[in-house]
Each structure stands twice: as structure tokens, then as C-alpha cells.
Amino acid sequence: MNPNQALWEKGDFTQLAAAMRDSGAALVARLGVVAGQRVLDLGCGDGTTALPAAERGAEVTGVDISRPLVAAGNRRAQAAGLKNLRFQHGDAGDLRDLPDAYFDLVVSIFGAMFAPKPFEVAKAMLRVTRPGGRIVMGNWIPNDPTLVAQILRISAAYSPPPPEGFVSPMLWGLEAQVVERFTAAGVSPAAITVERDSYVFRDPAPPAGFLEKFRRFYGPTMNAFEAAEKEGRAAALQHELQALFERHNTAAQGTEIAAAFLRVTVQR
Ligand SMILES: C[S@@+](CC[C@H](N)C(=O)[O-])C[C@H]1O[C@@H](n2cnc3c(N)ncnc32)[C@H](O)[C@@H]1O
Predict the structure, then answer these.
(1) What are phi and psi of 235, to 5 degrees?
(2) Which structural domains are found in the chain, ordered by start?
(3) Does ligand 1 lie within 6 Å of residue 93's CB atom?
């Protein structure tokens, strides 16, 4: 299995996604998703944005590289009685099962950024978007001081160096890289806009308990702890991450942490 798929099938992202539902629904509302629109959610997980888009009446296809997450998404769609939402297995860099110029909106929130070939991803997203349609990506920002960028930075510091040729997913959080990738796919620079946006994580557990979910269920953090354990550094990693979670928590009870991301919009 390719390492990208193995990483995301390793844990159970549904455990973290549960903390992201409010921001997913709010983002879908801000994007103005309306009934009848054809929406593709790439790297959709178990449907944090796909499900609210379908609840607004859009015809939604969710594509994800993790088969357990596809199955979890389909269970959520069924439980919600949504016939206009289906999840299928696929790779954001190779959307060969999907037709050309079909979707009004292609959305990818912290999803396609993790696919290993970013230029292929930009090309594939553009191909399936209809002329006049939109692509919206949410991408974590490298070295940003907020939660997720810091989790990934700290996790990387405890992990072995990536293999030769590995392109960091975080580069999708840099405007210059975004413009380079979409212009290479044929988009005019004037059709690309970026802005800083925010996602809020809410969990009933206190910060240490919320961190425990990352340690047990979030592939990149699980890998970092496995590597740290081999070197006797797991306690140091735990300490560093716990301090991060506690520093950013704004809730008196449970956890509430806002994390900045780059919202990219491409007009087709
Ligand atoms: C951080 S999760 C975000 C999930 C979802 N968009 C959300 O907001 O809850 C990243 C998702 O991207 C998916 N993913 C990673 N690489 C992918 C690829 N090459 N093609 C499709 N999905 C991918 C993972 O399986 C995972 O569901």
C-alpha cells in the first residue's frame, strides 16, 4: 500500500473529526452551498464538510484515500437519511473515475494537501470543475503559531526524516506555492485568491484528554510517538504537545482551540 494511504488508514480520524463539526458546517455556510449544486469534497474524511453540504441540498460526492473513512462517511450519510451524499475511495492526485468539467464546487479542507503529488492534485481538481465553478482548499500554514501547524512541526521533530523526494504537505499553506501549482495547471493568477481563516476544535475532554485522541488516533502523531518511543523520547514529546494544547485552550471546561489556515479560492 502506498505510504500516503497507509498513514491515513492507520488511525481513526473520526475521533478528531468529531471535534471539528461546528467549523465544518460554518465553512460550508460561508461558501454559500445551495440545493442542486454539484459538490466534490476531496480528502473528505467522514464528511465534516460533505455532510452539511448535502444537508443544504447539494449533490455531494466525497472522495478519500482511507477506506475506513469512506465507510464511516457512508454510515453517517445513511444515518442522516441523505440520498444526495455518497463517499467513494480515491486519490486526490488521480480522479480518473470522475468526469471532466462536472462539479460546481470542489472543496478540500485539510485533505488534498496531504496527497504526495501537488501538481497532479491541482490539475485533477481543475479538470473536474466546470467552467464558472470554484475550487476551495483549506490548508494548514507552515510555521504558523496555532495548533495544527505546531502539532505537525513538533511531530516531525520526533520522526525520522522523510524519504528523498517527499514534498511537505505544508507547502500548500504558502501563497506562492499555491499560485505556482494552479498556474502550472492552466489557471490565471488573477483567478486565485487566498485569505487567512480559522477552524475551531471543540472537545468535551480537557486539553490532555484531547491530546490523547491525537496520540491514539491521528496518523502523524501516532507515528511521531512510535518513533519517539524507540529513542526514549516519548515523555518529552508528550510534554511538548501537552504544553501546546494547554497554551492554546480557551475553554474553562473541556477544550476549545482555534487554528489558523489558508483558505484558497480558485475561480474556474
Ligand atoms: C486531516 S483529515 C481531514 C478530513 C476532512 N476533510 C475534515 O475536514 O474532517 C485529512 C484527510 O485527507 C485524506 N487524504 C490524505 N491523502 C489523500 C489523497 N491522496 N487523496 C484523497 N484523500 C486523502 C485522509 O484520508 C483524511 O481523511
Answers:
(1) -65, -40
(2) 3-142+163-200+260-267 (3.40.50.150)
(3) yes
